[in-house]
Amino acid sequence: MTAPYSRRNSSKPPPILIHTRLTDGTQTYVQVNTLLEPANNSSAMQHDKEEIREVSTQLSQIKKKHDETKRICINKQAELDALKEEIRNLGV
Predict the structure, then answer these.
(1) Are 31 and 15 in contact (CB under 8 A)?
(2) What is the pTM of this model?
(3) How far apart are CA 66 and CA 72, in angstroms?
(4) In 3D, which of 40, 16, 20, 39 has the Cα closest to residue 28?
């Protein structure tokens, strides 16, 4: 009888098996790859780096649009204040 999986017994976790039916009608267990396997860590980390880079680029573009819109808004508000002041000076 084999000992149950533990960190002391092995550095690798046991494979994950799923019950499946083969094309000839027999049933068996097939090993399934998971994201927890060490081989997937580097690709997952690379994917995370790319995603962080994309999000960062999008956020910087959004920030630029926001700053430009805010600048336009401040200029329009200044024009409105100037027009209100001009109307008050006319005495209307």
Answers:
(1) yes
(2) 0.46
(3) 10
(4) 20
Which of 6-10, 18-22, 23-27, 56-60 shows the lowest per-residue confidence on average (mean pLDDT)?
Answer: 6-10
Residues with Cβ within 8 Å of residue 34, at least 6 apart in sequence = 16, 40
CA–CA–CA angle 75, 81, 86 (5° rounding): 125
Instruction: Return the pLDDT at 1.
Output: 46
Rounded to an integer, what distance in angstroms lies between the CA atom of residue 35 and that of residue 13?
A: 12
Secondary structure element (H or E) that encloses residue 58, with its range: helix 38-90
For residues 13 and 5, the answer to whether their CB atoms sit within 8 Å is yes
Tens of pLDDT, residues 32-41: 666 565 666 6
**Spatial separation of the C-alpha atoms in residues 92 and 79, rounded to whole Å:** 18
| Residues in Cβ contact with 40 at an 8 Å cutoff, skipping those fewer than 6 apart | 33, 34
pLDDT above 80 for 7: no
